[in-house]
C-alpha cells in the first residue's frame, strides 16, 4: 500500500449533493447539479455521501479524501465557486481483479440451506484475491478480451462471439477455447476485414474450414457442423441476431440451457435462469445446496432457482466456476488455502491438508495452479 495524491479541478456551489463512489479501484467524485468535477479522482477509499448539504458541509464531509481549496479570487458567497481538489487516499499497488462479486444481502440469508450465505460470502472473499481463467478467458469475458470493449461498442457482434465461445466451451478448458476463438478472430479479420469475426463472416465458412481453426477443442468436428448450421438459422429465422428467449436459443444445434441462460444474461441482460456448469453442479451438491435427486445440471438449476434470490443468478456462475477452477479443483481440492476448510464450514474438507503447514514444495505446487494464488497463500 502507498499513498498517492491526485489533483483535479472542481466547480462547487453553495448548496450541493455530492457522491463519492467506488468503481474498481477508482473513486470518483460525481457531484449532482451545481458541482462538477472535471476529472476522476483516484482513491481506493469509497465513501457515499448523497444528501443535500451546504458548501461548507461538503468540504467537511469529503475532507478525509479530498482537500478542496478555493482559488484565491473565489467568492464563497457566489453560487458557483471554482476550487482545486486534491485527493489523498490509500491505493492498492496492484490492479484489483475484475471479479468483485457482491456479498449476500443479510435479508436474503434466511432463504435456502442454512449455510449458503456463509459459504457464498467466503467464496466472494477468496475470489477477490485471484483471477481465475473464467475471469478473462471465460465465454462471457472472452469477446472483450479479444476485442476490448466489444460488448459496449458492438453488442450484436459480442452476442455472436459469445454464442460461438459457448458452443466451443463444452468439454474444453477456457484456455483452449480462448486459443480457438483467437485463431478464428485473426483468420476472419484477414479474410473478411469488412466483417471481422461476425455472423457475416463465419456464415461464409464451410464446416471443414471452421474445423481447421478449432481443431484443439473437444468434439470439434461436431461443433463445426453445429456452428455452420446455427449461422444459417440465425440469418434465416432471427434477422442475423441471437434470439431473446431460452426456448428459441435451445433450438439452435449444440446449444443447451446452460449456454442459453448465460447468453441471455450477458448478451441481452435478461436474467431468466442460472447457467449451471460442471463446477457449479459439483460444488452446489458438495455444499448441500441441492438435494441428491438433483443429479443433472437442469435439476440442479431448478433446485437452486427455487430458493436462491434472482439477484444472485448472474454472479453465481462465474463466482463458483472460478473457485472450482483454482481452489476447489476436482479430485485434489486445495483445502489448505481454502477458508471454508480452515474455518470448518466445509464438511468435505481434507482435514490432513487443512491442518498441515505449507511447505516450500507445497507452495511451489500451488503456484502451478491455473491462477496466481500469491494473495491467498500469503494470508495463511
Ligand atoms: S473441499 Fe476443500 S477446497 Fe473445496 S470447498 Fe471444501 S475446504 Fe474448500
TrEMBL record:
Region (Disordered): 1-25, 85-109
Keywords: DNA damage, DNA repair, Glycosidase, Hydrolase, Lyase, Mitochondrion, Nucleus
EC number: 3.2.2.-, 4.2.99.18
Composition skew (Acidic residues), residue ranges: 86-95
Comp. bias intervals (Low complexity): 9-20
Predominant cellular place of this UniProt entry's protein: nucleus
Keyword Transmembrane helix carried by entry: no
Domain named HhH-GPD: residues: 168-326
Annotated catalysed reactions: 2'-deoxyribonucleotide-(2'-deoxyribose 5'-phosphate)-2'-deoxyribonucleotide-DNA = a 3'-end 2'-deoxyribonucleotide-(2,3-dehydro-2,3-deoxyribose 5'-phosphate)-DNA + a 5'-end 5'-phospho-2'-deoxyribonucleoside-DNA + H(+)
Location in or out of the cell: Nucleus; Mitochondrion
Similarity-based family: Belongs to the Nth/MutY family.
Function: Bifunctional DNA N-glycosylase with associated apurinic/apyrimidinic (AP) lyase function that catalyzes the first step in base excision repair (BER), the primary repair pathway for the repair of oxidative DNA damage. The DNA N-glycosylase activity releases the damaged DNA base from DNA by cleaving the N-glycosidic bond, leaving an AP site. The AP lyase activity cleaves the phosphodiester bond 3' to the AP site by a beta-elimination. Primarily recognizes and repairs oxidative base damage of pyrimidines.
Protein name: Endonuclease III homolog
Organism of provenance: Lodderomyces beijingensis
